[in-house]
Write a structure and sequence with these properties.
Helices cover 52% and strands 10% of the residues. It is α/β, with parallel strands linked by helices and 364 residues long. It has a six-stranded mixed β-sheet with strand order 1-4-3-2-5-6, sandwiched between helices. A hairpin with a 7-residue loop joins β2 and β3 (39-47).
Length: 364
């Protein structure tokens, strides 16, 4: 079993970069329950035959970690990295490039879709990992021996997962598929500027009239901005249910809004004036606001899903890897291929799906 070392000197971490291997395992522990932005609490790095448990709370350590993340000759092997990427960007100001995600690789290699780290480790190595520290307070110091062991385990087996998945991808000729997916994942993490049309992600928005949808868009845009600026979870600022209720049945003036907020124990009463300002102030681009999609044509969607399933079976890909229901609904809505289906996915699907899309779009 690889040795675990506690690293609390930035100079020590930077010195190790001078002899960095071509590939490291990488993971984080972070806290986000009471904030909008994740707070980096621990960085785990599998470097050769050692596990480095890096304390990012030490001044200067985030910059030392950033140097590793930016090292172009070091492949960063991670598992289900999307939240870690947001955390790294927030704490270190950069992202791990180049990157290899073993969860994504396992899916493209036909091993399984959305496999958790523990399950994939057991499947590949036979090692059964404990799950006892998943909700620990990672900001406390010192960390307990159980926390340290759990954290080290999160990167100890990444090399084995890399070897198992990279070999299969190479044999299948799918390394380029993973490269495209990694580029898109990193681009999404780098952008992270919030949704332009956040009302589209709320199913209840489709039951509002146009004026109600505009009000909802105003509230959700304001909520996102306030949550980011004040580092609060969105639901602490304004929950979805209240946002939709105010959009559907808006109060006539600010005092009426405040009375409604005062009548609800968990409402953001102290933000009444700001909510009124957001609710009643038109946005400069709301005339271009797309309407929420209604329920899709079930028969047309089923035909697309069946075609995707057939192609997935031919490629020996797990369900959901080639195209999700949400992406097929978006494709069906206007015939435009969403970003998530571009690249290799479109190459594999366009021949089968295009004949099914033409009549569906024409009928719409």
């Amino acid at each position: 079993m690889s040795e675990a070392l506690w690293i609390d000197q930035p100079e020590d971490l930077l010195r190790r970069l001078e002899n960095a291997p071509a590939r490291i395992g990488l993971d984080t522990e972070f806290i986000r329950e009471r904030t909008y932005w994740p707070r980096l609490a621990l960085v785990q790095m599998a470097v050769g035959d050692q596990v480095l448990l890096v304390d990012p709370l030490v001044p200067g350590m985030p910059q030392a970690v950033a140097a590793w993340l930016d090292a172009p000759g070091v492949l960063k092997v991670m598992h289900s990295a999307s939240e870690d990427l947001v955390t790294f960007k927030c704490a270190c100001g950069t992202l791990p490039r180049p990157m290899y995600d073993t969860q994504a690789a396992a899916a493209l290699a036909g091993i399984g879709a959305g496999l958790g780290y523990q399950k994939l480790v057991e499947q590949v190595t036979g090692v059964v990992l404990p799950k006892g520290e998943t909700r620990s307070d990672w900001l406390r110091r010192p960390l307990s021996p159980a926390q340290l062991e759990y954290a080290a385990d999160d990167v100890r087996h990444l090399e084995a997962l890399y070897a198992a998945t990279a070999g299969r991808l190479r044999d299948l000729g799918r390394q380029a598929w993973l490269d495209q997916d990694m580029d898109r994942t990193l681009a999404n993490a780098a952008r992270d500027d919030g949704e332009t049309w956040p009302h589209l992600s709320l199913r209840s928005a489709q039951f509002l009239d146009n004026a109600g949808q505009r009000r909802l868009l105003r509230l959700l845009r304001w909520r996102e901005r306030y949550a980011r600026e004040h580092d609060h979870p969105r639901s602490w600022v304004l929950d979805n249910e209240l946002a939709v209720a105010l959009s559907r049945d808006p109060p006539p003036d600010a005092p009426a809004l405040q009375r409604r907020l005062d009548a609800q124990p968990k409402s953001p009463r102290r933000l009444g004036q700001a909510i009124w300002q957001a609710l009643s102030t038109p946005l400069p681009d709301e005339d271009a606001m797309p309407a929420p999609a209604g329920d899709p044509d079930r028969n047309a969607l089923k035909r697309l899903q069946d075609a995707v399933a057939r192609r997935s079976a031919e490629l020996a890909l797990p369900d959901g890897v080639l195209a999700s229901r949400r992406h097929l609904e978006a494709l069906l809505e206007n015939g435009q291929w969403p970003a998530a289906l571009q690249g290799w996915r479109r190459n594999e699907l366009e021949t089968a799906l295009s004949p099914l899309l033409a009549p569906a779009v024409a009928a719409g």
